[in-house]
Write a structure and sequence with these properties.
It contains six helices and 18 strands. The protein is α+β, with helices and mostly antiparallel strands.
Length: 286
């Protein structure tokens, strides 16, 4: 979404509406946090939202760090990344020793001291970003592409139950280069924060669903509206994660090719290879 390493002005910037719609649903979980916005300057909507709500949330600290693409370059040898700390009355600016990349040792140290990292990281490096941050143990709330939920660095955290989608799964508004409005339909909030889901409404009939080739016990669901409430295995689109976790459903893995134990083989129907599906199971509530 942003420039490589987290540049804030030359690609897509998150709008206030996108930030406020999601973060307002997590107010209880955000209370008393030490927050690091590790791809942001004080002009970002993340920084503005947390600064406006800092007193209400009782934040212990709020820090922004931002990558500088000119850092240590031939024509700007003294340039470096920036850091901003919220004082309650404004932002206190200081210079970093390095370039300010989220992956730099300096910024990772700030993230380790925080207990929540929140941002819109560069989508081109989203899998790397997620793995670095999740391995540190801090809670995370970050925007990313829906398609990368199936990537090797990300999906194991979903399968284990540590990572899930946030509340907003519809169209999200952004500003290209901070000026031109745009809407994305395939972006999702990825988070380790608790999310309360309504019970999945299932109105389909298992007996009317086709099955996956070579997997006669796995019913194929192209649209979630066709999902059945009857116990059994289902191959469902990735968008099922907009409703997960939810009582009565178990996630087993991906119907995709690969050596990882959670990759359970490519899904085909009538000889045609399908897009990657989730393998889920409807179980009766205890």
């Amino acid at each position: 979404m942003r420039a490589r390493n987290g540049g804030a002005t030359d690609e897509w910037c998150t709008s206030w509406r996108t930030v406020d719609t999601e973060l307002s649903r997590h107010v209880e979980a955000l209370h008393g946090r030490s927050v690091h916005l590790n791809c942001d300057g004080p002009d970002s909507m993340f920084a503005r939202w947390f600064a406006v709500h800092a007193d209400m949330l009782g934040l212990r600290s709020l820090t922004c760090t931002r990558w500088n693409p000119d850092a240590h370059s031939l024509f700007h040898p003294d340039a470096c990344g920036g850091r901003w700390d919220w004082t309650g009355a404004g932002w206190e600016h200081s210079h970093l020793a390095g370039d300010g990349s989220y992956a730099s040792r300096e910024c990772l140290q700030v993230s380790r001291r925080a207990d929540l990292v929140c941002t819109n990281p560069p989508f081109s490096r989203f899998a790397d970003y997620m793995q670095r941050l999740l391995d540190m143990g801090a809670d995370l709330l970050a925007l990313g592409p829906l398609s990368l939920v199936k990537s090797d660095p990300v999906f194991p955290y979903v399968l284990s139950g540590r990572l899930r989608f946030g509340y907003t799964c519809s169209q999200m508004s952004f500003l290209i280069d901070g000026r031109t409005p745009a809407v994305l339909r395939n972006a999702r909030w990825y988070t380790t924060l608790p999310v309360c889901r309504p019970v999945v409404s299932c109105e389909g009939s298992r007996g009317r669903l086709p099955t996956v080739d070579g997997m006669p016990d796995v019913c194929l669901v192209d649209r979630l509206a066709l999902l059945s409430d009857e116990p059994g295995l289902y191959a469902v689109p990735l968008t099922f994660l907009d409703r997960w976790p939810t009582p009565g459903w178990r996630l087993h893995g991906l119907l995709a090719d690969g050596a990882a134990p959670w990759k359970l083989g490519v899904a085909r129907h009538e000889g045609r290879e399908l897009f990657t599906r989730l393998l889920v199971e409807r179980v009766r509530d205890a």
